[in-house]
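Run log, item B.
One chain of 267 residues. Sequence copied directly from the ordering sheet:
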Amino acid sequence: QKMVLGNLNNDSGTGVVFTHNPSDGKPGVNLYGDFSLTNQGEDIVGGLVNTLPVSESQKEKNFSKDSISLEKDFPEIYEALEEYATLMTEKYGFNHQEIEFTFETSKKEDLYVLQTRDQVIRRKEMQMIFDCESTDMDHVGSGIGTGGGALNGRAAFSMQDIELLKQQYPNDAVILIRPDTVPDDIDMIFESEGLLTGKGGATSHAAVTAVRLDKTCIVNCTDLRTNENEGICNINGNIFRMGDEIAIDGYTGNIYKGNYPVRYEEA
C-alpha cells in the first residue's frame, strides 16, 4: 500500500469522474464529474469543498468562463482518465463507471485510481420545467444541477423545519438548504423533495444519493451563505427563512425566489 497525496501543492488534487455524462444523453465515453486542488479524496465525496469541473462542456453549463477545468488545465490527467474509461467500457465491457482518483502532480504517471464502481444512470421520459418566461422569474443564484427538473417548494434548514412545514403546508414540497452535502444529512434529504447546498459537487455521496432517491438537487451554489442556528440563508443579498417560497431547477442549476407555474415536457 501507498499513501497518495492530493494536497502536496497546487498541481495536486483529487476528484470523482463519471465515464458518462447523465445529462446529455450522448452514447459512449463522455467524462463528467468534480475535482478539487490541494485536497484529499474524502473532501470530494464527503461534499465538504467547492468543486471544479472535469470537462470544458461541463464548465460552460455550470461555471464561470475563467474557471479552470481538468480537461484544459490538467490535460495529461484528463487524457489518462479518458483512456481508462474507454478501456473499461469499450474494450472490457464494463458498465459506465464512477471513478475516484487522486493526482500528486499534473503528470500522467502521478495519477492514481483509488476505486471504481458501476455508475447508476437514470433517464426520465418526461421532466418538469417552469412554464413561464425567465424574465418573469426572480433569479437569485445558480449552482450545479445534479438531478430533477423544476421544483417549487418552501425553504427548510433542519429536520424540525421539515416536520413543521409538512404539518403546515402538507401539499407543498420542502427544499432543504444546507451549507454542504455531508452524509449526516441523509435523513433530512430523504424527507425532503429538493436539496440546495453551498458546497459539494455532483459526485458527493449525498448528492448522488439525492438523485437516486429522485430528489431535485442543486449543489455548489458558491453565493449561498447559511446560518443553521438562526434558520436563515442569504443568496446574493436575497434572504430566505424557514417556510419562504423558493424554486429550483435541477437541470439548469438556477435558483429563484417565489414559486412559478410548471409543466411536463419530453426529457
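Observations after the first pass:
- The longest helix spans residues 75-91.
- The two ends are 45 Å apart (CA to CA).
Flagged for discussion on Thursday.
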